[in-house]
TrEMBL record:
The keyword Transferase applies. This is Putative glycosyltransferase. SUPFAM superfamilies: UDP-Glycosyltransferase/glycogen phosphorylase. Keywords: Transferase. PANTHER family: D-RHAMNOSYLTRANSFERASE WBPZ, GLYCOSYLTRANSFERASE. InterPro entries: Glyco_trans_1. It comes from the Bacteria. The lineage of its organism: Bacteria, Bacillati, Actinomycetota, Actinomycetes, Micrococcales. Residues 322-355 are annotated as: Disordered. One of its GO terms (molecular function) is glycosyltransferase activity. Residues 207-296 form the Glycosyl transferase family domain.
């Protein structure tokens, strides 16, 4: 199949485009969220950068939507309406925002575009209304067992921790910094020291590293800290588990399903997590033992082959139910999906998870 999708969530896309299809990623001269293309990533040759306006609309077999405004963009540029005369599926990456658990999904009033939630927690907490739903849990391209744990510090990967604040558990970092020094990786960490008051010896900002360098440097930390309160399921957490790192995680959202107790420590009690952090920092062998358990759990549940097989089934179902172009009886419900489009469509419903 020839599948159109935008490069929105890098880590998720990294797994998705390793399947057996042809993947078309819109590119613009200035890049940005609507034209990032491959962004220099080492992806298979089956991942092609395309100029959307020059694309043959009839050559596309399906579109994978990740932002509600993408449906209107496809219709405007290609003249084919997702869910009406172009097979489409919507991937919901994020936890709901607003009046949880009563938050109605922006595509909840239509039936033509199924919603694929990336976690069971998301499907449970979003009110998906009339829309068909399915859960396809994350898959990770295994980076291998790289853990050394040679540095007695906690590694944290979080994007925009200052802006996102309590969502990412930024306010908890000073408490963890008293248990062990922190190395913080990710985009938008400027001002983190000032925002948290953590002194330089206890906080090192590593910034946004390339994936291979991130894995290498993160693996040197004694344990991985996942302080996020309200996120779908940070892919960095799953990557850390694949690397063989023991993990310390808040038992919130999908983390409670993803992290078994033997993989480190998972709790809503911050003091319990701090005690475990000190234990792991002071006992490298115990840290290594729990890290191996974390890797085993991640490989079992979040392997790439299972992820791609699940998506193959969804895409096959889309192809089998391919709508006829020009079908009038589906126009009304299909248009309902497009009414939620626009740059502010989700401003009250959710905040993009940039991990």
């Amino acid at each position: 199949m020839r599948i159109l999708l935008w490069h929105v969530h890098g880590s998720w896309t990294d797994a998705f485009v390793r399947g057996r299809h042809e993947y078309l990623l819109p590119v613009l001269p200035g890049g940005g969220s609507w034209g990032l293309g491959r962004a220099g990533r080492d992806w298979p040759a089956s991942v092609r950068e395309v100029a959307l306006a020059e694309l043959d609309a009839g050559s596309i077999d399906a579109v994978v939507l990740q932002r509600t405004e993408e449906a209107a963009e496809v219709t405007r540029v290609l003249g084919r309406r997702p869910g009406v005369d172009l097979p489409a599926v919507y991937v919901e990456h994020n936890t709901p925002k607003g009046d949880v658990p009563f938050t109605v999904h922006p595509l909840g009033e239509q039936r033509d575009i199924p919603i694929v939630h990336v976690t069971h927690f998301n499907e449970l907490f979003w009110d998906s209304g009339k829309a068909r739903t399915k859960v396809i849990e994350h898959g990770i391209a295994d980076p291998g067992y790289l853990y050394t744990g040679e540095v007695p510090e906690l590694g944290v990967v979080v994007n925009e921790p200052v802006r996102r604040g309590r969502v990412t558990g930024t306010d908890l970092l000073p408490r963890f910094a008293t248990a062990a020094p922190l190395q913080v990786f990710g985009m938008g960490s400027d001002g983190l020291a000032e925002a948290t008051g953590i002194p330089a010896p206890r906080l090192v900002i590593r910034g946004d590293l390339k994936t291979t360098e991130l894995h290498r440097e993160l693996s040197r930390c004694r344990a991985y800290l996942h302080p996020l309160r309200w996120t779908s399921l940070g892919l960095a957490l799953l990557e850390a588990m694949h690397l063989g790192m023991p993990v310390l995680a808040l038992a919130t959202t999908e983390a409670a399903r993803a992290v078994p107790p033997e993989a480190g420590c998972i709790s809503t009690d911050v003091e319990e997590l701090r005690r475990c952090a000190r234990l792991l920092v002071n006992d490298p062998e115990e840290a290594r033992r729990r890290g191996k358990a974390a890797r085993e759990a991640a490989l079992e549940r979040y392997g790439l082959e299972r992820f791609l097989a699940d998506w193959d089934q969804v895409l096959a179902d889309l192809g089998a139910a391919r709508p006829q172009r020009g079908s009038q009886e589906r126009v009304a419900s299909g248009d309902a999906a497009l009414k939620v489009s626009g740059p502010d469509a989700l401003s009250a419903a959710r905040e993009r998870n940039t991990q």
